[in-house]
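thread: overnight batch results

M.L. [08:02]
morning all. the overnight job finished for the chain we discussed friday. pasting input first so we're all looking at the same thing
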Amino acid sequence: MPKDPGRSIAAVAANVLYYLLASELLGVPMVAPSADPSPDLSPLPVTDVIIFSLIFSIGASIVFLVTANFSPRPAQVYAGLSLVVMILSLFMPLMIPTPPVPMVTKLVLASMHVLGAAVLVPILIGLGIPRDKNVHHSLPKDA
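M.L. [08:03]
and the structure it wrote out:
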């Protein structure tokens, strides 16, 4: 994982602020099916948003490190991988049964995936990895 935890914290903070905006200001019911077999819904606590955002941010950082170390074009490869994974991740919240979970809740959860990627991916790519590892800087031979 990159040395600066602020990168992951930025994505977590963006998702927490978005969660609070949606749930508190816009009144979106942030609920999920309960763990037991009953059809009841349980509130989706903000701690779940923090935990899952942090887990996925750490995972994205690990993939970034692997890509940066092994790809000849790390920025482009990582951006492409991130886009594919983000699109695939949208299916998780959208596959929650409706009803009982309202569609607006599922859309807010899916958009949190987009927000997290929109915050984290540019930060990771902007860390200074070269766009093309084949470009080498060397000292003049007479130095």
